[in-house]
Structure formats: structure tokens, C-alpha cells
């Protein structure tokens, strides 16, 4: 291939001839008399920038972006690294890494088909070399690998317009995700990065010069990709980086925290929240006890506010796992978490209420009785409101709490406090809820109390009936007051006098 390239040049161009000869001579000297050549014994291989690559000197990995046919003539197949002598493998690896920095337009599958195929085969050869390496990677290889990975992965993500669907979780779930047309090459790059990070031949102290803060931040930016396959790779890679580079752990947690802040308080749109929470779930699981103050602040300032966005269904399972991990790590956090969730409780979003009730059940399963007593009043005040929801799934989910043995035991131990809170809501359902299943479940819950603690149930029913009579009397009194006001206004409307309320007229609180 290279003979054909250089054979087109005329011998009369002496300056070019000297330049080529000088380069050949330099390569042969650096390689101790043996040039890296293909199987046909052609000219020494040049890098994608046209410069010969040696083994002894540190190379400058130059950015090479394809521009139609400008670079195509330099892009040819190279011999396999495993077929080369050990002394020449590193030289060929560097050439291939530099060549793979070349970028192609994958939105048009008909352009540069030959070069794309060669690049894919070359990257697979590099991946095989990294997988089978049995010696520590030198700095020039580490630099070359991270440079090639950066050139291929770090790009501007193309996010299609959503036409007013940004905050609607159900619309986002129904929309088909964007599949990156470059994925056939990108997944090889991700495999290379993953194997490079977790390889025992990668020295963390050396690699952190290139896998630095900027590298990690740019990886985090890619989590907003709509391609689920890419986010899955990113999740695994970032977790491996967190495990290998211990010095970066606080930085990674802080950087993820910043992504969450922007999502909660600014955009409410990000494709990778679920994957980031999966990483944090593993991190939280490994927290040492007692928990540091910074971890508790992360819970209060980030994880609990993540219940606010309307698209919570996209990541609720992972969020619930993280929250439960905190309760299991420190039982005293249960009260803080439950009160925080109740503060974020939705008013008009019924699917979100169902999610919250499921999460509440998981938290209560991990809550100790002493902590449960601190927050049982706000819990069952909210549960009672859910009983009377006109959305039958919300009411059913709240009533299903009694099917959980752990939750039922907590309720039974504190029935003197809980029954007076929920009994009016149960009676309201039994006497008037439109859904037969909700009425039946309400009756079953009431029956559990009446059979287990008949005396307490009778006492609460008596109190409920008395309160009901007082409420009816209050409503009658209020109606009489409004009727009197109406009569006074009617008498004075024709005279043009200002209508004044008598100071003796008692003011009734609004319902």
C-alpha cells in the first residue's frame, strides 16, 4: 500500500525523497534494524498523520479527523499485533492506536465503508492485546489508549426535541430511545476502556495521569445518552474506575451529586439518573459504619429531593434501593427519610402515589419499632388520605400495607395511636367509595381491628360517632350562619346601605 503511495511521487522531487529516506532511516534505527511492515514486506508503516512511529521516543498523539478522501489513502490494513515479534508489538500498537483516533461519519452508512471496516478490525486487535497482556503497560501505551478512547467517546450528544414532553415520564417511556449509529465501533471502544481499567497490568498511579478529573467529568456527561447500551457500559466503567482509583472516590461522588442537583432544580431531564443511582447503590452498600456526616447530608440534600421530579418512575426502583440501604445502615435515619418523603408526597399524580406507597412499605420493613413510633402519626395520616383517594389503585395500594407481616406487626403494637387516625377513613370507604374492591378491603382491615382488639375498636367507634355528630352540628350551624348573612344582604341591597356583619354573629371555621 505504502509503495503505491510513494511510487506516485517523481524522483525529480529530491527534497521529498530525502524526507522519506530520512524517515525510513529513523524508523529502522529505532527498531534496531527491523521495520514494522505488513506481511508483503512493504514500506514501514506510517501513523495516521503520515509520521513514522518509533518505539523509544514518546509519540505525540495527534487528532486526526477524516475529511472525505483526504485521509483514505493512508488508511490501510495492518498486521495483527499477536503475529509480530515481542520487540515490535508495542510499535505496532502505537501505530494502531494513533490510526484509530480517526473519526468517521456514521450517520451515512455508505461513506468510507472500507475505512470503517479497517478501523473496527484494528480496534478489535487492540482490544485483544489489552485482554491478553501479561506485562505492565508503559506510559506511552497508557497515553495512547486513553487518547484513542477520548477521541472516540467524548462527543456532543444529539438529543432529539421532545415537543413539550420533557417533564412527562409516561411520554418519555413511550418514546423510542435513540440508537447511536456509531455503536458498532463505540461498543468496541467501551470494551477496550473496561478491560483497560480492570486489567491487572494497568498501574493505577500511572494511569491516573490520563484518567484524570476531566476524563471522569466527560464520562459523566455521556450518561445523558439516549442509547441504553451506552449507559449500561458507562455504569460498569465508572464503577470500575471508582473501585480502582481510590483517590477519585470523593470527587466522583461529588460530581454525581452535581448532576443530580442540576436535574432536580433546573432541567428535570436526564437519561442516566437510573444508572447513576445504581452505581450509588453499590457505593452506599459499602459505606463504613458509623456513617460520615457527608453521607447523611447527601441523603437529605439529594436522595430525598429526587422524589420531587414528575419523571420519578424512570428511576424510582434504583432510588428506593438507595434509600433502603441508608435505613439498614443507620436505623435512626428512618424518621428523617419518612418525613422527607411525606413532604414530597404528590397531590394530583396518582401513579407517583402508588410508587411512594410501595417505597414506604420497603422502608417500614427495615424500620425498628422505636423509630417507627417517632413517625407513625404522619405516616398513617398520609395513609388515611390515600384510603379515600378516588383513584382505586392508590386506595388499594394503601390498604395492601396490612398484607405485609412486618408492617402489620408494627401497626398492631401501636394500634392505640394508629386506629383513631385511620378509622374515619375506613368508615368513609365502607359507606361510600365507588370501587367495590376498595370497599371490601376497607371492611377487611376494619374487621382485623375489631377481632384483635374489640375493646379498643368499640371505644374508637364511639369516639368516631361522637365526632360525626359534632361535625354534623357544626355544619348545620355554619349553614345557618350563611343563611342569616344572605337574609341581611337581601334586606339591605335595595337601600344601597353597606352590608355589615353583626359582631355577635359567631365566625365558623371553613371546612
From TrEMBL:
Cellular location(s): Cytoplasm
- Provide the residue span(s) of the region labelled Disordered: 1-59
Report the main location listed first in the record: cytoplasm
GO BP, sorted A to Z:
signal transduction
Residue stretches of biased makeup (Basic residues): 1-12
Q: Which domain of life is it from?
A: Eukaryota
Tell me which GO cellular component terms the UniProt record holds: cytoplasm; protein phosphatase type 2A complex
Any Pfam family the entry gives = B56
Biased region (Polar residues) positions are 27-50
UniProt keyword terms in alphabetical order: Cytoplasm
Q: Where are the transmembrane segments?
A: none
Q: Name the Gene Ontology molecular function terms of this record.
A: protein phosphatase regulator activity
Function, in words: The B regulatory subunit might modulate substrate selectivity and catalytic activity, and also might direct the localization of the catalytic enzyme to a particular subcellular compartment.
Q: Which family does it belong to?
A: Belongs to the phosphatase 2A regulatory subunit B56 family.
Q: Per its record, how is this protein called by name?
A: Serine/threonine protein phosphatase 2A regulatory subunit
